[in-house]
Amino acid sequence: MQLVDRYQRKFEYLRLSITDECNFKCNYCLPDGYQRTHQKQFLSENEIKNLINAFAELGTSKVRITGGEPSLRKDFTNIITQISNTEGISKVATTTNGFSLSKHANEWFDAGLDSINVSIDSLDANTFNLITGKNIFHKVMEGVEACSEAGFKQIKINSVLMKGLNDHDLTTFLAWIKDQPIQLRFIELMQTGDNQAFFKQYHLSGQTIKTTLLKQNWISKDRRINDGPAEVFTHPDYLGEIGLIMPYSKDFCNNCNRLRVSALGKLHLCLFGEEGVDLRHLLQNCEDKQELKELVVASLQEKKSSHFLDLGLTGATPHLASIGG
């Protein structure tokens, strides 16, 4: 069995949420802070082990551990170790808000984390505070430096692009990555079930950044098999790279290669559009692995050709923290 859908897209990349809790109040995601809407416990280490083993046997080679904020789990390091030691998994990554990064970067690297994405929506401390609700810009930047010192070869910075808030930061960001091997990724603001007015006010197409980059002689880089959705640009005068994630662009979903499992054990075929397929009853025992694999493969045949965001459809996703972005 392989993870191939009816459009012949192959899925070797799993985004696994281990919590939907977050300690930030980002205005584009959780402006009122985290509100727990369920009584269920998040996936246990044993459930995660059974899940990853099944996906690895189906051809998954890359796992990104997401949240909410994944480092809020006290067993986060154990989870990294467990996944990185799974046969067939060649790359383990995570996305974090950087809150505890300066303290734990070495520990996570030693546990087997290969790649790390840090959310930094502005290089101005005041704007960072305005967007995230946390006045800890310098602490997060110390965390980025700690990642470099720990030995991470791939450090990515995620910045949600918002009109009138941080779109003017491009020059500052470019100056920052000129001498640092960091991939800066601008992510288009996406509309979810609870942010229609915010989206209308602040959405800005990533094409505006792409046009600027091309005028400055940045060159588009070829995608690798288990890369994420970013269109990456390089420049001979820069050590760093620029990645653009533009979900509203034409044919964005054609190269989709990732599936998602929520912190409550639901398989999501897309970030948008459906309620998810419950896998949790098959995660309790390793003896259920074959049935679990069959359910995942069968469910994948229901994956649609597109997320249809360009038609204004936001599906069942209440906010981006709910299933790991």
Largest sheet: 12 strands, mixed
CATH architecture classification? Alpha-Beta Barrel
CATH superfamily: Aldolase class I
Rg, nearest Å: 19 Å
What fold name goes in the CATH topology slot?
Answer: TIM Barrel
Number of domains: 1
Distance between the termini: 27 Å
Write down the overall mean pLDDT. 92
Count of alpha and pi helical runs: 9
Q: Note the overall shape.
A: globular
The helix-and-strand class reads alpha/beta
Low-confidence stretches: none
The percent range for strand residues is: 15-25%
How many E-type strands? Answer: 12
Q: Output the strand order for the largest sheet.
A: 7-8-9-6-5-4-3-2-1-10-11-12
Detailed description of the structure:
This protein is α/β, with parallel strands linked by helices. It has a single domain (13-322), classed as Aldolase class I (TIM Barrel), CATH 3.20.20. It is built from 9 helices and 12 strands. It has helices at 45-57, 76-84, 101-111, 125-132, 137-150, 170-177, 196-202, 207-215, 289-300; strands at residues 13-17, 62-66, 91-96, 115-119, 154-161, 182-188, 219-220, 231-234, 241-245, 258-261, 266-268, 277-278. A 12-stranded mixed β-sheet has the order 7-8-9-6-5-4-3-2-1-10-11-12, covered by helices on one side. Helix 3 (101-111) links the parallel strand 3 and strand 4 (115-119). Helix 1 (45-57) packs parallel to helix 2 (76-84). The radius of gyration is 19 Å and the shape is globular. The model has no long low-confidence stretch (mean pLDDT 92).
